[in-house]
Amino acid sequence: MSRVLPTSPQNGATNFAASARAASLRRRSRSLLTYVILVVFLLIALMPFVAIILTAFKTPLELRGNPFSLPQTWHFENFVEAWEGARFASYFRSSVIVVIPVVIISMLLSTMSGFAFGMYRFPGSNVLLLVILLGLMVPFEAVIIPLWQLMGDLGLRNTYWALILPQIALSFAFG
Q1: Which residues contact 175 (CB under 8 A, 6 or more apart)?
Q2: C-alpha 57 chain-centroid distance
Q3: Does pTM top 0.70 for this prediction?
Q4: N or C: which end of the chain has fewer CB within 10 A?
C-alpha cells in the first residue's frame, strides 16, 4: 500500500514570504549603504565650513596649527576688528543697497516673463525665448569690458546703478 504524505499548502506561501523578507533585507542594506556614503560625502563637504568657523575664533598664533582644532579660548574680537578695522560695515551696507533692488526687480521681471512664456503664445515668443536662452550662453567675462565702457558712456561709473542695472539684466535670463 502506498502512503500519502500530507503536503502543507503553506509551503509555497512560506517560500514566498522568505524570499520577500530577503528582498526587503537587501533593499534595506542597500539603502543603509547609500545613506552611509551620503553622510560621508556630507562630512567631506562640510569640512571647509567647519575650518572657516573654527578659524574665525582663533588668535593669530593659533592659526598656524591644525585648522580643525578647537580654539583654546574663543575670541570674538576678530569679528569686531573685521567690522571696524576693515570697514566691513561700509561694504555690508553697499551690498545691501545693491542686493535689495536687484532681487526685487529681477523677481518681478522673471515672474512676469515666465508667466507670459508659459501661458501665452504670441508672435515672436519663440524668437524672444531663443534670445534669452542665447544670452545664457554668453559668459560674464565676455561682457565685462564692454559693460565698463557702457557705464562710462552713460556716466554711471562708480555708482550703485553701475552694479544694479547689469545685474538685473544678467539675472533676467537666469530667473
Answers
A1: 106, 107, 109, 110, 111, 113, 114
A2: 26
A3: no
A4: N
